[in-house]
Write a structure and sequence with these properties.
Blueprint lengths: L3 H25 L8 H4 L9 H32 L4 H4 L4 H80 L4 H27 L2 H8 L1 H13 L5 E6 L1 H5 L3 H20 L5 E8 L3 E8 L15 H12 L2 E6 L5 E8 L8
Parallel strand pairs: 1-2
Antiparallel strand pairs: 2-3, 3-5, 4-5
Helix pairs in contact: 1-3, 5-6, 5-8, 5-10, 7-10, 8-10, 10-11
Length: 348
């Protein structure tokens, strides 16, 4: 703050005090009492004139009032013209505007943080989705590998095994029954060509469609002829074509593979002379039965290196079907697969 207003205020205070003293002087001055002439024997002085003193005080008071007025005017102008502080020159709503600006900046900062959090959440979600997708691809690849191995075991390998048995039979008959040996060789050639077609069908993914076009009964007949491979085995087969038609392409293929594995086990490991195969319609399912009179086995025991029973259970699980395998040594084996229908059967 400038020192001029302070100096003017002090001068004004002094002048006002002097003015007050000048105005009060006539009232404070009183004449002294005169002693008796007789007592002092002196001549009393002449008394002062009160009027002259009042006039003098009045003049002095007017001068001091003029000076006080001038000082007051100077003080007002010095205060009015001095530069104000920044806080005093702000607009009336400057504080409110500052608070609003602060709130706006806070809101913008919060919004920016929200956007950043959303971006990080999106990045994390995409990363998780990519990881899940890669996991699904890996699981699908592993499942496809297992399925391919299962199909090769239950299809191509079984067919090639049957071809080997047919060729062994032809070798035995080549000197004694040349005509029968030629027939066996032709049968082996046809089985090899069939295996080649199966491989091509698996490669192109047309296995189920080929089965649907040929018909389930025809496919069963072909696989039994292929697996018999010169054995003296009888087959008792009854296929309900209406029940087979209710199966989807995938169900038909998997059910046929279960039948193939059951018959192959009966012939290769059980040495069965009679195999019974049935396919019929239940209430809301299609039932497959494969039964043989072979040597049987302990159902809970696993043959080293064998995958047949495991593959049958895996195929049934893939279809949502129930699979039951029962056997005892010397009593043959019995395989029952119950496949649920994907579409209701028409009432007869």
């Amino acid at each position: 703050m400038s020192p001029l207003p302070r100096i003017l205020a002090m001068a004004l205070l002094v002048v006002l005090a002097a003015l007050l003293a000048a105005l009060a002087a006539p009232h404070l001055t009183k004449p002294r009492a005169e002693p008796a002439a007789a007592e002092t024997g002196l001549r009393p002085p002449a008394p002062a004139k009160p009027a002259q003193l009042a006039v003098l005080a009045h003049r002095i008071g007017l001068g001091l009032a003029a000076v006080a007025l001038a000082l007051a005017v100077l003080l007002v102008f010095s205060v009015a013209l001095r530069p104000g502080r920044p806080a005093e020159t702000k607009a009336p709503f400057a504080d409110a505007r500052t608070e609003m600006n602060a709130l706006t900046r806070l809101a913008e900062s919060t919004a920016a943080q929200g956007v950043e959090l959303n971006r990080e959440r999106d990045v994390r979600r995409r990363a998780e989705e990519d990881a899940q997708f890669q996991q699904r691809l890996l699981a699908q690849s592993l499942e496809e590998k297992i399925r391919l191995g299962r199909d090769l075991h239950d299809g191509i390998i079984q067919s090639l095994y049957a071809v080997g048995l047919t060729l062994e039979t032809a070798r035995v008959l080549v000197h004694t029954q040349p005509a029968e040996a030629d027939r066996k060789l032709e049968q082996a050639r046809a089985a090899i060509n069939g295996s080649i077609r199966d491989v091509r069908a698996y490669i192109t993914g047309l296995g189920p469609e080929n089965l649907r076009r040929a018909g389930f009964a025809h496919a069963v007949e072909a696989l039994l002829a292929e697996l018999q491979a010169g054995r003296e085995t009888r087959f008792d087969v009854k296929i309900d074509e209406h029940a087979a038609a209710l199966l989807s392409a995938e169900q038909s293929q998997q059910t046929l593979q279960i039948a193939r594995e059951a018959v192959s086990n009966a012939l290769r490991h059980g040495g069965a002379s009679l195999v019974t195969l049935r396919l019929h319609l239940g209430d809301s399912e299609v039932c497959l039965l494969v039964q043989d009179n072979g040597i049987g086995f302990v159902a809970d025991a696993r043959r080293p290196g064998g995958h047949g029973l495991t593959n049958m259970h895996a195929r049934a699980e893939r279809l949502g079907a129930a699979l039951r395998i029962t056997s005892r040594p010397g009593e043959g084996a019995r395989v029952i697969a119950t496949v649920p229908l994907l579409r209701p059967a028409a009432s007869s």
